[in-house]
Design brief:
Elements: H1 5-14, E1 20-24, H2 27-34, E2 39-40, H3 46-50, E3 55-56, E4 58-59, H4 67-77, E5 82-85, E6 89-94, H5 97-119, H6 128-138, E7 144-145, E8 148-149
Parallel strand pairs: 4-5
Antiparallel strand pairs: 1-6, 2-3, 5-6, 7-8
Helix pairs in contact: 1-4, 2-5
GO molecular function, one term: aldehyde-lyase activity
Keywords: Lyase, Metal-binding
Protein name: Class II aldolase/adducin N-terminal domain-containing protein
């Protein structure tokens, strides 16, 4: 069993739509988490993880395996699909375990990209209006299933 069982159960309790949680110490997510950085809207795909907010949040630091960390992660995830965990790693969630794993891989990829963007001097972040337009576009983007788009990946932005 994971020392982070409280984190997993906290997300399940707070989010009835969630049936899968993944916690990992992936490289680039951990790098940004150790820098205690949120991931801003440097790329439109940040919306996949951030949900309706303008960042993928980095939860404040608390010792691993504690109720304080679990609460901080639940708050940082909010209505989105994941967060970074200060000086630790990342946690993601989804409608099932496959979706949660997809979001973990997607968040790692975004963290890698953002780390590279920071290395060359920083990002030109998209604003709320631009992100809202992307979220709307995602509703009809990609393969059509039963009259609606699937969006990126799992179609999380419907």
């Amino acid at each position: 069993p994971s020392s982070e069982v409280g984190l997993h159960s906290g997300i399940y309790k707070a989010r009835p739509d969630v049936n899968g949680v993944v916690h990992t110490h992936s490289n680039f997510a951990s790098v940004l988490a150790c820098a205690r950085r949120d991931v801003p809207t440097f790329h439109y795909s940040v919306a996949e993880i951030a949900g309706d907010t303008d960042v993928v949040r980095c939860a404040p630091y608390h010792t691993y395996g504690t109720p304080e960390l679990a609460r901080a992660v639940v708050e940082a995830v909010g209505g989105g699909q994941g967060c970074l965990m200060a000086n630790h790693g990342q946690a993601t969630c989804g409608s099932d375990l496959e979706a949660a794993l997809y979001y973990a891989l997607r968040l790692e990829n975004l963290c890698m990209q953002y780390t590279h963007v920071l290395a060359i001097g920083g990002a030109c972040n998209l604003g709320k209006e631009e992100m809202d337009a992307c979220r709307e576009r995602d509703k009809t983007y990609g393969q059509v299933e039963e009259g609606g788009g699937t969006g990126h990946g799992l179609g999380c932005c419907k």
